[in-house]
Specification:
Elements lengths: L2 H16 L2 E4 L19 H7 L5 E4 L3 E6 L3 E3 L9 E5 L6 E7 L2 E5 L4 E4 L2 E3 L7 H12 L5 H4 L5 E6 L9 E6 L2 E3 L6 E4 L2 E6 L2 E3 L12 E4 L10 E6 L2 E3 L19 E4 L18 E5 L2 E3 L6 E4 L4 E4 L2 E3 L10 E4 L4 E4 L4
Parallel strand pairs: 1-2, 2-5, 3-6, 4-7, 5-8, 6-9, 7-10, 8-11, 9-12, 10-13, 11-14, 12-15, 13-16, 14-17, 15-18, 16-19, 17-20, 18-21, 19-22, 20-23, 21-24, 22-25, 23-26
């Protein structure tokens, strides 16, 4: 074995050996070691701040909540050999809630991340249509009371967003989560790559936001490499009763509220049609059940290279009248063996 290869081999062994399991409980203490279930950290954020490639953060039973900023903001990254994993401790059912001045209950801006086994609960039960519409009207007339607006637009899990290209996340998996009753979107990926969203239950989201959200959405993915194979995967999810009741502030009318949407990959975020490079990767939407949504069950818009296979979509378009499965202004979209 070459000396350089041998050193890389030893480094890989070292990284694997140094991987740590951390534990978090709402009754823990961030000044503890966090390395056992009897000495857990108190906050998911502290665990995120100290975790490195290969580490696993086990969340124990209890309620993790915030009224000012994300409950969990992941900015560190794992590696292709060692993801950072946030997951429910076996036998536990951790819950995350967010309301007030919170735009995203969970925000992921790192790469090689797994989030698994959480229930995320929004604040729909404490919001009225009348108040949400008045917030929209105020913002549409030039208002900038963002700390108040956040409560009516809180998203569940947000991967990426509009930012410097060097910070775009990639290789993020959201698995086995329950995301419901957020006034904003359920699970969204914006300007990210290699996003996998699988085996989640996503319902009652998007009701009160003024930004046209959906249950699951992938918007303006970016190419972290030049691969043209499947890079984004949405599979085995159940999406229901996601809808919009407040107009989209950009168009001043109701829009979206889809169960699943693959949205705009023909040009980059912030560009116009024909500007910038289109996304090269393919997206797979497979084996999902999507019903009773205000928009489509499954929707593609200005998004190319998508395969929609073996899904069931029924009784959608309850608000805006979109078809159950709808491909709109797209190329190279295959719709195969679905039930509508």
């Amino acid at each position: 074995m070459k000396k350089s290869s041998f050193l890389l081999f030893l480094l890989g062994l070292s990284l694997k050996t140094l991987a740590i399991n951390y534990y978090v409980s709402p009754f823990g203490n961030d000044n503890d070691t966090g390395e056992s279930s009897t000495n857990p950290f108190r906050t998911l954020q502290h665990a995120a701040n100290v975790s490195l490639a290969g580490d696993t953060i086990f969340a124990m039973n209890g309620l993790y909540s915030s009224t000012s900023g994300p409950v969990l903001n992941i900015t560190g990254s794992g590696t292709s050999e060692g993801y950072i994993t946030f997951k429910a401790m076996p036998g536990h059912k951790p819950r995350i809630t967010a309301s007030g001045n919170v735009w995203n209950a969970v925000s992921i801006n790192g790469s090689y991340i797994v989030l698994e086994g959480f229930e995320l609960i929004g604040n729909n039960a404490n919001i009225t249509y009348e108040k949400a519409f008045s917030i929209y009207t105020e913002a549409a007339n030039g208002g900038k009371n963002w700390s108040v607006y956040a409560n009516y637009n809180t998203n569940g899990i947000s991967i990426g967003g509009p930012r410097d290209e060097t910070k775009f996340p990639h290789h993020v998996t959201i698995r086995n989560c329950k995301v419901h009753d957020f006034p904003g979107g359920g699970i969204s990926s914006i300007q990210a790559d290699y996003t996998t969203i699988e085996n989640n239950l996503v319902y009652n989201n998007g009701w009160y936001m003024m930004y046209a959200g959906s249950g699951i959405s992938i918007l303006n993915p970016f190419d972290s490499d030049k691969a043209t194979t499947y890079k984004n995967i949405v599979r085995n999810n159940i999406c229901s009763s996601n809808k919009t009741t407040i107009p989209w502030i950009s168009l001043k009318r109701l829009s979206d509220g889809n169960g699943i949407i693959i949205d705009v990959n023909q040009y980059p975020y912030g560009a116009k049609a024909g500007e910038g490079e289109p996304y090269l990767g393919r997206t797979l939407v497979e084996n999902n059940i999507s019903f009773n949504n205000g928009g489509s069950g499954i929707h593609t818009y200005l998004a190319d290279h998508v395969d929609i296979i073996n899904n069931t979509a029924y009784h959608n378009g309850t608000v805006v009248g979109y078809p159950d499965i709808f491909t709109n202004q797209c190329k190279d979209v295959n719709i195969i063996n679905n039930i509508m």
